[in-house]
Amino acid sequence: MLKTQELTLNLGPHHPSTHGVFRCVLNLEGEYITKAVNHIGYLHRGLEKLAESRTYTQFIPYNGRLDYVAGMLNEWGYVMAVEKLLGITEEIPERAEYIRVIVGELQRLASHAIYFASMALDVAGATAWFYGFRDRDEILDVLEMVSGQRLMHNYMRIGGVAADLPDGFEEKVRALLDKLPACIEEYEGILIGNEIFKARTIGVAPVSKEMALDYGFTGPNLRASGVDYDLRRDEPYSVYDRFKFNVPVRQGGDTYDRVLIRIEEMKESVKIIEQALKDLPDGPIMAKVPKVIKPPVGEVYSRIENAKGHLGFHIVSDGSTKPYRTRIYSPCFVNVGIFPEMAKGLHLMDAVVALASLDIVLGEIDR
Q1: Which of 84, 86, 116, 308 is the most buried (most CB within 10 A)?
Q2: Does residue 85 belong to any structural domain of this protein?
Q3: Rounded CA gap, 275 and 242, in Å?
Q4: CA 216 to each of CA 203, 302, 310, 336: distance values in angstroms, whole numbers, following the listed order
Q5: Are the C-beta atoms of residues 277 and 59 closer than 8 Å to each other?
């Protein structure tokens, strides 16, 4: 009679997406997972606490280190929370709000492009990786025009944005938007329709609607499991209520749907940017805010639809120039929590694909 022995294996930190700050201890029976336990390491060592020793303005650039492939969206979420604390949400100039939408959706496109590239590498090989990075690089060229940086932008400001759009920006964005639909079609052709990719993702690690809600999924992962909810439409902030766009929803909740939902969302981001450029008003880009920001005593919670889900900021003010307490609700931290449940019963090689499909960034998990 053949005897088997349970094997314990560390998934990570050797895996490219974990780079030392995450590993999952797997119990294996043969090559199938019977148990998985997450172990989260350290990367930034306390950004939330660091916020309490910086002024409200000084903490803006630190937010780019959270989800470091979606820096503009992180900054936007933070300054919105401070504006709510100051009670100036309605005073933000229209032009600044439109600019925020444009650069925010460009950042969402860049984030989804790198997700596509990473999934391609984890599943099928390196060729499709270059397609995603090709398009992300062009998007970062545009974001660099407004902020001077490709990754850590430090562009959002409490009350508006740091600088107006430079000459040639609108033309460059329109040229990019003309190219992107064809690029997204290439994604669908080289990966989404690939038989190997389908075999590796369809039916792998499905998350039901009930499980997604129980684990607190938000964003694309939630919508891939059949929950039709998007903050931009259902709890609109900034000027999102002025734009027409669809919220893609899938029903299977498997790895394939989690990839496809992001491809579909890229098409909608293109629509939003086109409308924002068309209606972009003239005017100031900053509200009249004091040079030294001292919100009244109180607390606030504010959230936005980040590329990976709901990114929330809870800030407590004691009336000084620095937050008394800052806590960040991280979609990546919430999403990785379901991985042990997803991994049960999976083949070892499928576990890597399932983890990648959650679209986690470790900088946001360890805050």
Answers
A1: 308
A2: yes
A3: 9
A4: 21, 17, 10, 11
A5: no
The residues, ordered by sequence, that sit 6+ positions from 250 with a Cβ below 8 Å of its Cβ are 223, 224, 225, 226, 257, 260, 261
Contact 35, 344 (CB under 8 A): yes
Q: Does residue 20 carry a pLDDT above 70?
A: no
Q: Kindly report the CATH number assigned to the domain that includes residue 80.
A: 1.10.645.10
> Quick one: tokens of 178?
């003309």
The mean pLDDT value for 327-343 works out to: 93
CA quadruple 162, 268, 181, 195: dihedral positive or negative? positive
Q: Running DSSP on this structure, what letter comes out for residue 241?
A: G
Average pLDDT over residues 114-118: 91
For residue 113, the tally of other CB atoms under 10 A from its CB is 28
For residue 135, pLDDT over 80 is answered with yes
For range 109-127, the mean pLDDT? 87
Alpha-helical runs (H) found in the chain:
47-51, 71-86, 94-123, 127-147, 169-187, 195-201, 209-214, 219-224, 231-234, 255-278, 331-336, 339-343, 348-357, 362-365
Cβ-contact 108, 102 below 8 angstroms: no
Residue 130 resides in a domain = yes
Domain that holds residue 79: 47-357
Residue 18 lies in a domain: no
175 burial level (CB within 10 Å; 0-12, 13-18, 19+)? exposed
Please state the length of the chain: 367
The three-class DSSP label of residue 184 is helix
Contact 291, 275 (CB under 8 A): no
How many distinct structural domains can be found in the chain? 1
Q: Do the beta carbons of residue 291 and residue 282 sit within 8 Å? A: no
* Half-sphere exposure for 142 (CA within 13 Å, toward CB): 25
Q: Which SS3 state, helix, strand or coil, does residue 10 take?
A: strand
- Where is average pLDDT lowest: 11-20, 101-110, 338-347? 11-20
For 11, the token pair is 């998934």
The reply to whether 120 falls in a domain is yes
**Where do we find the tokens 């990473």?**
118
Residues whose CB is less than 8 angstroms from the CB of residue 166 and which lie 6 or more positions away in sequence, other chains included: 145, 146
* Each residue's pLDDT tens digit, 292-302: 999 999 999 99
